[in-house]
Amino acid sequence: MKKHNFYAGPSILPEFTKEKTAEAAMNFAGTGLSVMEVSHRSKEFVAVMDEAVALVKKLLKVPEGYSVLFLQGGASTQFLMAPYNLMDKKSAYLNTGAWSKKAIKEAKFFGEIVEVASSADTIYNYIPKGYEVPSDASYFHYTSNNTIYGTQIPTPDVDVPLVADMSSDIFSRPIDVSKYDLIYAGAQKNLGPSGATLVIVKDDALGKVDRPIPTMLDYSTHIKAGSMFNTPSTLPVFACLQTLIWLKENGGVEAMEQTNIEKAKVLYDEIDRNKLFQCTVLAEEDRSLMNVTFVMTPEFAEFEKEFLEFATAKGMLGIKGHRSVGGFRASIYNAMPVESIQALVDAMQEFEKMK
Ligand code: PMP
């Protein structure tokens, strides 16, 4: 039976990425060795890192004056590296969920944090609007896509530099990098396996804080060493490169955005139509194109477990909602084919007929 991978992360990757990585796991760049067993300083691996950096710059139209890094430690380490390197005395944060909250917690180790707005009052099912960002903040931090709650944010229009956690929607749409001092993303959604963390940092934003920064947590260290200060996660970076090649060959982030809009519409339309289900995110403009969160309508609440089993038996994997939201979450990242979304919609329609 065909498996449809709706996991939130680690999550679906292009077949191309998996095939090329599987090949390189046995014979990397004609070396006769696995990509896991050659030096990161070999000319073959240095070429992988260089091409990955160049493709990130090309796909996201990264302007001059920015560095692209592949680090380790996940997005969670960026929660502290961001304030460590960029925050003077104060910074502003938008609280749109568990990941924002974790970022805020780390930033508080470094100074005053202004939480400009929060949607915690209704389990983060909307994006707060109309907030004020203090003009003396070093930066404004937000989570562009809230993986758990199914909400997504367009680039905010504020007067201070932006810092964004784009872990779950990087490469899903074009972004104006020039508005950001820092963008970071754990690889394990739209890019590659876990173990690599993508960082795009504005060079001029660095070196402005007084506090001493430990070597490994200083972006400058990794910029100077071309992400090779210590051993990078070689196999994950190789896999990320394959996804970047796949992205380029498939029309880049502009084409991804179009397809993502069309793909998400198939599922949201069905949730809105089907009497059994309702979306947890009410305002259409807040709905994520990456993670679609929905629950049973109150009249049919008793059938939640039954639908989960029904859909799972039909090959839908990973659709159980996060425990803090309940219900279901279908993660439909770039690599998710519309056929899999249609299969979920078909299962929802079939289940409706049974009730
Ligand atoms: N931010 C967001 C938006 C996430 O979805 C996640 C979970 N993958 C994280 C941060 C934490 O990422 P990591 O596990 O790479 O530290």
From TrEMBL:
Domain named Aminotransferase class V: residues: 5-344
Gene3D superfamilies the UniProt entry points to: Aspartate Aminotransferase, domain 1, Type I PLP-dependent aspartate aminotransferase-like (Major domain)
Major location (coarse): cytoplasm
Source organism (scientific name): Draconibacterium halophilum
Binding site residues for L-glutamate: 41
Subunit structure: Homodimer.
Compartment annotation: Cytoplasm
Record protein name field: Phosphoserine aminotransferase
Function text: Catalyzes the reversible conversion of 3-phosphohydroxypyruvate to phosphoserine and of 3-hydroxy-2-oxo-4-phosphonooxybutanoate to phosphohydroxythreonine.
InterPro entries: Aminotrans_V_dom (IPR000192), Aminotrans_V_PyrdxlP_BS (IPR020578), Pser_aminoTfrase (IPR022278), PyrdxlP-dep_Trfase (IPR015424), PyrdxlP-dep_Trfase_major (IPR015421), PyrdxlP-dep_Trfase_small (IPR015422)
Record PTM N6-(pyridoxal phosphate)lysine, positions in chain: 189
PROSITE patterns in alphabetical order: AA_TRANSFER_CLASS_5
Coiled-coil region: none
Molecular function (Gene Ontology), one example: O-phospho-L-serine:2-oxoglutarate aminotransferase activity
E.C. designation(s): 2.6.1.52
Top EC category: transferase
Residues where pyridoxal 5'-phosphate binds: 75-76, 99, 147, 165, 188, 230-231
GO CC field: cytoplasm
Cofactor: pyridoxal 5'-phosphate
